[in-house]
Amino acid sequence: MLPKAAYGYIQSKQRYASQQEILDVARGYRARHLPADVMVVNWFYFTKMGQMDMDPLRWPDPKAMNAELHKMGFESMISVWPRFVPEDRYYQTLLERGWFEHLADGTPTMGLPYDRAGSEIDTTNPNAARWYWDRIRENFIAKGFDSIWADETEPDLPPNGSYLTVGPGTEYFNVYPYFHTKAIYDGFRLRADSTLAGFADSKASWGVLLYCSPSSFQAVGDCVRSLPGHRRCFRIPA
């Protein structure tokens, strides 16, 4: 069973610009006695893609923010992207370890002609998957976030022509959502302490209901391609 909050109203939009804004929205729900259960921090809270931080100018105290949301009866979810750029603090580590989706010559796949927003970590590699969870735990779970939105798991970057640890992307075309979500599931289940509950939402598709994210520009073919991955949610009891 999913957590009770997952069956309620989950408040999200393309982005909230600051800690103050998301708290004001949450207070507004409670002041108007409107039912809502989860507040979502979407992308661009970070200083750069792959930094896995929260801009201190706009998000000065995420732990205090989450504590206040909890007092108001909300759970919190944060969008985490698997993309990294050369300027972030983790890119070089991933590059040296060969943990990116890559081209035949080993060069990390760097987006599409119209989208150069980073290279994706290859979470089909179990070592990369464990590393990714550890960064999520120390950067977000430790700050009081209850659940993870595993964003960009369609993925936007078609894997054909690139290579993953499990094999060529042309052959293993739809496996990324499964392996990527599994990395977070295994983190909560196998590496979390006994008091930590886990819930993750993966942006791919939802059962037989085709889901296309309004926060990205996707062609119909991209949506169809994401369907076999399904939209995955899980909960690990505390």
Automatic annotation (TrEMBL):
Q: Where is the Glycoside hydrolase family 31 TIM barrel domain?
A: 1-191
Q: Which residues form the signal peptide?
A: none
Q: Which domain of life is it from?
A: Bacteria
Q: Which GO terms describe its molecular function?
A: hydrolase activity, hydrolyzing O-glycosyl compounds
Q: Which protein family is it in? A: Belongs to the glycosyl hydrolase 31 family.
Q: Name one Pfam family in it.
A: Glyco_hydro_31_2nd
Give the UniProt keywords, A-Z: Glycosidase, Hydrolase
InterPro entries annotated for this entry? GH, Glyco_hydro_31_TIM, Glycosyl_Hydrolase_31
One GO BP annotation is:
carbohydrate metabolic process
Q: What is this protein called?
A: Alpha-D-xyloside xylohydrolase
State if Amino-acid biosynthesis is listed as a keyword.
no
Query: Which organism is this entry from?
Result: Bryocella elongata
